[in-house]
User: Fold this.
Amino acid sequence: MLNLVLFGPPGAGKGTQSEKLISKYQLIHISTGDLFRAHIKHQTALGKRVSALIAEGELVPDEITIAMLEEEADKNPQANGFIFDGFPRTVPQAKALDDFLESKGSAIAGVIALDVDQEELTKRIAQRQLETGRVDDQADKLKKRIEEYFDKTIHVLPYYEAQGKLSKVNGIGKIDDIFNALCAQVDQHQK
Ligand code: ADP
Assistant:
């Protein structure tokens, strides 16, 4: 199995690049942000529980997020592999993911971090807010998301670095150039 984590701050381009990677490598894309938004849209019990947190730009508690992720992965027992996008966002999530994959006789092959500076991120998200109207893209909510990223999520990087699984790709430039750089990293992890 080829299991990858695509890592990066809000607006780094994880969603865009995941779509391209899944089609090239025949992987299943699991975006916890997309899953939460679908729950909210369909007004499920889970959606009702998390909608206020997400609107404020806060992280959903690990327990809820991990259970949702595992349930989604279990829907695809025949997968060639997964791209995890927006997960793990905390060290306990990263540990839970390792344990979960190990229980299936699998593991994370590599973690690719998309590197984009703060100025560019702010520009991209302002644009996305205009296009999609995502409430958590509004400036004050975005500020909270970026705080959560630097407070909790950034610590996931040393966790994977210690396992020798982390690589970085410049996330600024043409979408296809970034994609090619990502593929070069994926091919390394596949060896
Ligand atoms: P972004 O565009 O900021 O990368 P996502 O679409 O991945 O955002 O996630 C949107 C929101 O969903 C997050 O701000 C957070 O509230 C919630 N969320 C998504 N993934 C996780 C996670 N792994 N742990 C906790 N909360 C999450």
Notes: The first helix runs from residue 14 to 25. Strands lie at 4-7, 28-31, 82-85, 110-115, 166-170. The domain at 4-190 is CATH 3.40.50.300 (Rossmann fold). The radius of gyration is 16 Å.
